[in-house]
Structure formats: structure tokens, C-alpha cells
Amino acid sequence: MAAPPEGTVTLLFTDIEGSTRLLRETADAYADVLLTHRRLLRESFTAHGGYEVDTAGDGFFVAFASANEAVAAADAAQRALAAYEWPERQRVWVRMGLHTGEPRLLDGNYIGLDVHHAARVMAAGHGGQVLLSQSTRELLDEHTPLRDLGEHRLKDLSSPQRLYQVQVEGLPHEFPALKTLENRPMNLPVQATPLIGRERELEEIAALLLREDVRLLTLAGPGGIGKTRLALQAAANVIDEFANGVYFVSLAPVRDPGLVIPAVAQTLGLRDQPGRSLAETLREYLSEKVVLLVLDNLEQVIEAAPEIAAVLGAAPRTRVLATSREPLRIAGEHLYEVPPLSLPTGTDDFATLAGIESVRLFVSRGRAVQPEFDLSAANGAQVAELVRRLDGLPLAIELAAARVRVLSPQAILDRLGERLKLLTGGGRDQDERQRTLRATIQWSYDLLTPQEQTLFARLGVFVGGCRLEAAEAVCHGDLAIDVFDGVASLVNKSLVRRRDDADGQPRFWMLETIREYAEARLGESGERPEVRDRHAHYVSAYAESADRTVVVNREAAWLDRLDREQLNIRAALDHLFERQQFQQLATLSVALTSWWYLRGHLREGRARLETILQTGADFPPALRRTALREAALLAHRTGDYAEAAELSERFLTLARACGEPGAVAEALLATALMAESLGETPRAVRDLNECIATAESAGAERVLAMAHGNRGDIEMVGSNYQEAQRHFAEAHRLFEKLGDKRHVGLSLANLGLLAVRENHDPEGWRFLLEALTIAESLGDKEAIIWCLGGVAALAARAGDTASAATALGISSRLREETGHAPQRDQRELEQETLASLQVVAGEVEIDAALQIGRELPEDRRISFALALAAKK
Fold first, then answer.
1. Where do the DSSP E strands lie in 432-582?
2. Do residues 521 and 456 make contact, with C-beta atoms less than 8 angstroms apart?
3. Which of 187, 354, 706, 858 has the most neighbouring CB atoms within 10 Å?
4. Which residues does 548 contact at the CB level (< 8 Å), separation at least 6?
5. Is the pTM of this model over 0.85?
6. Is the Cβ–Cβ distance between 513 and 420 less than 8 Å?
């Protein structure tokens, strides 16, 4: 088979007409019939240079570099099928469609509107018929025998397209009317622009509409998500299944629920009859009809739902496809939540990015207003970020794309802070609600009760969503409705969405465009300061509870919860700073330090604490000491040893002034750590000795354990391995006694690194594997970095140079992401390992393995290290 052609290509689609009938009639012989059909077609396509893109069931998708060769292949294939001596009742009738365009080639497949166009051309035909589009006709030789079939509306709902039929010599030239929209009873409106993406949704909706038990299917979702356009295309796709027609009824202008049935009747051409209600006339008319009714925009006339149910009850072969921002809530309703368009992941290569639905929509609509606009390496990242920040909401993307006539993607991004002002200017032929994003959301907001409007606005303070208990704590106020009932109602009305967190608990959230609108309404209500205060107080209490659990039990579950709430945490921190509530801000920040350490938010934590300390606010002494301690440790972890030393000295001064032995011991631990990092080993040893004595007298076992760990570090760097072993072992014993899981893991890492220094490799692997296992369970990135240096050294000594370099690459990437600066002993060990690797394998090979480690996905980094350690 030929290589896939690029540029202008002719696409050929085929399938067997009446494949279900053929399967029934041939029974066990169907497989042989299908194989024969495939062989005959493949031989014809290959002979004319066709590239087989895909084969699914009884259909082919083939690409040709030449339109003439594509038509010749179709001609030859039809002749081959006709000439083959099929057994009785096994004749295979294949329809074919051709269209020429410039689809994108992605991993050997083609994507884009031209692909769908070719499939639509084929779908209009009958078995034995070869159809082609105008673009293919224009490239053919003049002598190609064709028949002009005139203009037809294909199932993509676009404007009419001229179709041609290839006159295959010796085969029938007369066929029934084409299976196009104008040859079916329907009123589906022409669409000005093609539907981009939604292939998966269209398949799912079609499957539901054709199920016997689905009589009413409601497409639900917020305004601007594309419910109407999706419903129209889904209806067009299944039009062949509804012999008596598919009818679209727009209810957007209807406000009186009593006018819904008259609107449906009018669409079907029914009139009032003397002595009968219009509802009775409609039910009788549909009683024996196979009809699909598309009822669009039902949310403002939702009270008409019982009358719709009555129609369905009287017309068993009629189906309803409804669009609404909330369910109809009648018996037999099946709900389909319309999702946003697919979004970039942030790691997509350029070819993948070009095929993502939201990006395709932006580029398509951008070209409509600026023909020179295209996705490029220069703007790809900006377009990807744009559609992500617009939540994949089709209306928002279309309105943003309309701005490329005057703004670059980066300029649009820069203005997204006020997206509701930016995203205006829809077409004048659109419904007024669809001309600005704000108007679209306003439409849904106006349908809420006053109490629901208040709850909706208050929920806008949550960034990234919230659990139900958070909504109850922050939004209750003077609401006259139960928060749970109100949230459930907002979910039903598609203004709030629900997903389950990793622990199975529901999280309620808003698309960011909707949340921005909710927050604006909150500001207009005058409640914003009070509600944001409640939000900040709730987050503070949550973080303090988490910190107590993490410090005592080192539970990863609480760290995971803080990860899920990090957007709310940052919003609370910002609000407290803006309101100059510095004491609560300091309390919250201190409570977050374990999370900042363990999950690698060191730079952020340091910046927050140092800003608080610079305010000059009058904090309680204990709070100021704790803030100084944590700020010093964060500065140390990020490599700013001079700043860390200055902060720890201030901590020690305050601790000695208060006279509490436990506080003094903590401060001495901090000053010793800073002295060690600055190379002031005698000072470090002196402070640690005083720290150990003070902690023992105060019964401060946690500080005592940490002091022994730090003494072990000093002794290990000085090659006093026996003393290092004694201190590390004592630290490990004390942490196990305290049940401090995280520091048990770190003490095991220290023992493992000591074993590496002593060339006790089996012991080193064992300790490091235990330490990595604990680090994985906690998501402790600092501990993982510690262990990776030892793992790399051991792998290098074992001759596994590639794995050793990969481990160093992972460690390097983690340090960049988290801001962790390497400690002196870690830096020395890793430099020694890298030098030894380059001697054995050479710089180029090692650099390649380092890069593999740096590019390893986050979810595979720890598993790589664990697998390596377990293997040894």
C-alpha cells in the first residue's frame, strides 16, 4: 500500500448498503462474503495508488494523491464487485463517495472537515452508486463519464452542495433519490458554519435515540455549550430512521408553557379543529407516525413537560430530543450531559494540538474573520492556553476567535481577566442571548428564584469548586433554602457541575466563565467582603485541622485534600492580605507549611511567609516565632542560606527571651542547620549539642530526633561513619516511637545514603526502597529527591549507567519544579556519580539518559525509582 499522500488529496469512503440484510441472509457465510468484498476493493484501490487509512466493519476509508486515480479506483472496484460470481442472494452492493480537500495528516490518519464531507457524500448514495463532490469534479479529466445530480443538502446541515455521479460502464446508471436532507420530511435549518468535533457525542446520542427504551432524550448543559447545534446534527445523522420526518421546534421566543404544544403543532402543519383541543389533534396525528421532534430551549417553559409526556404516551413511535439547561423530570427521561469541547493537556505536540476539538474550533472561527490566521508553532501555546481558560465552552471560544481580526492570541489572553467584557460581538443574526457570553449566562440566572440567585452568587467565591460541607459553611448566611437543595437545583439547571474527587466524595464546581459571572453578581449584591471573610475563615480552619493531622500522623489523604483545595487556599491567602487580617493570615500560612514542604510549593510558601513578616504586624510571640522558624526553613530549602541564617537568629533571640526550653531547642536546631549549610561546622556542632541537651531536659522528642538526624549528616560528611550511624539510628528510633511516618522515611533515607558512602550496597538498596515506599505514600517530593541521589549512585556502581543517569535526570527536574536546593552532601554525591558515569559511557549517551529522566511524566517518576530499587 502506498504512503499517505499529503497536501491536496481525494478521500474515498465506502460501505455496504443493506449490510444487516446481507448478514441475515448469508448467516454463517457472511464472514467469507465480507472477506471477498474486502479483497476485491483492496486490489482495486492498491492498483491505483490508494492509501488505506482505515477499515471498520464493512467500510473503507482510502486516500489518493490524484482525483483521477481515485475515480478510476472506484470505477474498478464497482466493476470487480459486479463481475464476481456471488452465490445466490449474496450479491454485495457498495456505495462510494469521493471528496477532495486538504485534511490534516496525524499519525497516518486524516482529520478535519474534509473527512466528514467525504463521508457525507458517500452516505447520500445507494449500493452500486459512486458520488463525488464539486471539488473532485474540478480536478477530473474532461472525458470522465459523469452525471450532474444538482445541488443537495448533505447531513452536515450546511448550504447545498453540487454532487455528481460516476457513470460506470456496463452497470446501472439509474438509482433512487439521493439520501439527502431535502429528500426527507424535515425542517432542520441550514447552518452557517460546520460543526467542529463532537464525534464521540454524536455517536453516543445516535445510539441512545435508536434504543427502544429511549423515548425522551434531554441534552442538558449551561448556555453556550452547544446543545442546539449538537441536537441538530444528531437529528440529521439519524434522519433515515424516522420515516415520517425529523422536525425542529425552536422554543427560544416562547415564554408561556401553554404555547409549547401549539408551537409543535404549527411546525407539523396542524390546525385547530372544531370541538377538539390542539393537544388532542397533535396526539392523534402522531399516534402512528415514526417522527423525531427536536424541542430546543425548554428551560424557560419547563412546566410544559407533562404535556410533552402526554404526547409521548399517545404516540409510541415518536421520539423527542430536547435541549434544556435543566432536566424535564418526567417519567422515561434519559439525560445526556453535554460536556465542553476536548482541551489540550499542556504536553501535546503540534500535530496533536491541531486535532483537539477546542483548538480546531478556535482556528476555524478565527479564519472566518481573518483568512490569514492559522495555528502555528509561534501561537500554538497561546491558543492552547486560551481554550483551556475558556473551559472548552464553544460560545466563549467563538467569541474569542472573532477577536483575532484585531488582536493576537496573546493579546486576547492578556485581556481574559475581564472575559465577560471581552467576549462580546456575536453575529447580528444570532439570538440576542448568544451575542455575548454575559447575556447567555444572564438568561440562566434570570430563571432562578431569588434565593437560588443568592446562593449562586455566593458559590462564586470558591475557586476550583468545593465540597458540600464547605458550601454549607460559607454560603448559609440568611438563606431561606437549604444549601444542599439549592446546590442540587443549580446542578439541575447546569450552572453548577458535579464531579467526584479521588476519594469518591462529590465536588461542586462552575466553569470559570460562569464563576466569574457569579462573583460579579456577588460584588453587586454588597455581600462580597462578608462571604469572602467566611470563605477565608473556613479555609483556615480546614488547613489547621489538616496540619494537626499531617504533623501527628503524616496522613497523605489530608495532603491530597489540600492539593485539591489549593486554588481556594490561594484565594483565601490573597483575601486575608488584602483585608490586612495579618494574624489570621500568619496562622493560615504556618498551618500550610507541612503541605508546602511535602508537595513542593517551597517558593510560594517562602514568599507568603516573608511578606507576612515584612508587614510589621503585631503578632502573638508564639506565632511570630513559628512564622520565623518556618520562613527560615523554607529559605534554607530553596538555597538562600544567608537569609535563612538571619531569620533563624531572630527566631533564637525571641526563643531565649521567652525562656521556654522547647522553643530554645527548636531555635538551636534551626541555627545549627543554617551554620552547617554555610560551612560553619563548629558552630553547627555547638548548637546541636546544646539543642540535644535542652530538648532532652524539656522532653521535646521530635526536636531531639531531628537534632540527631542533623548530627548524623555532619558526621557522614566528615566520614565519621560510625558516629553517623549512631545518630541516624537514634533519630529513626525516636521518629518510630512518635509515629512520625514522614521522618521515619527520611531517617531511612539517611541510613541508605550512609550505606552508599560505606559501600554497603545491599543495605543501601534496602533502606532506600523502604524510604521511597513511604515517600510515595505521602507524595513527599523532598524525600524522593533525597533518595534519588542514592539510587543513582548504587545503579552506577552496579553498571546500570542508563538507569543511574535517568534517576539523576528525575532528581534534577523535581528540584526545578519544587525549588529544592541540593544540600552539600547530596550535591557532592550526585556530582561524583555523574562524573563516574561519563567516564564509563561518554557524555552524549549520559546526556540522553538524563533527558529521559527529566522528561519522564510525573506519575512515572517514583514508580521508576521504586522498580529500580526493588529489582536490586
1. 497-500, 506-509
2. yes
3. 706
4. none
5. no
6. yes
Grid cell digits, residue 760: 554497603
Count the neighbouring beta carbons within 10 Å of the beta carbon of residue 245.
Answer: 17
Residue pair 64/4 in contact (Cβ under 8 Å)? The answer is no
CB 602 within 8 A of CB 610: no
Higher pLDDT, 870 or 609: 609
Bridge-based pairing of strands 130-133 and 94-101 is parallel
Question: Directed axis angle between helix 528-553 and helix 566-578, to 10°?
Answer: 120
Strand pairing report for 497-500 and 292-296: unpaired
| Whole-angstrom distance, CA of residue 622 vs CA of residue 430 | 63
Helix H, strand E, coil C: the string for 387-451 is: HHHCCCCHHHHHHHHHHHHCCCHHHHHHCHHHHHHHCCCCCCCCCHHHCCHHHHHHHHHHCCCHH
Residue 820, all three cell numbers: 529544592
pLDDT at 421: 63
Of residues 78, 45, 66, 65, the one with CA closest to residue 141: 66
Distance of CA 93 to the CA centre of its chain: 43
* pLDDT tens figures, 217-255: 999 998 889 999 999 999 999 998 999 999 999 998 888
Supply 418's cell numbers: 475581564
CA angle 777, 781, 787 (to 5 degrees): 90
Residue 750: C-alpha distances to residues 277, 552, 732, 785 (Å) = 86, 21, 9, 12
Residues ≥6 apart with Cβ < 8 Å to 240: 179, 184
Burial string for 781-805 (b: 16+ CB within 10 Å, else e) reads bbbbbbbbbbbbbbbbeeebbbbbb
Distance between CA 387 and CA 197 in Å, rounded? Answer: 14
Angstrom distance (rounded) from CA 75 to CA 71: 6
Return phi, psi of residue 285, to 5°.
-60, -40
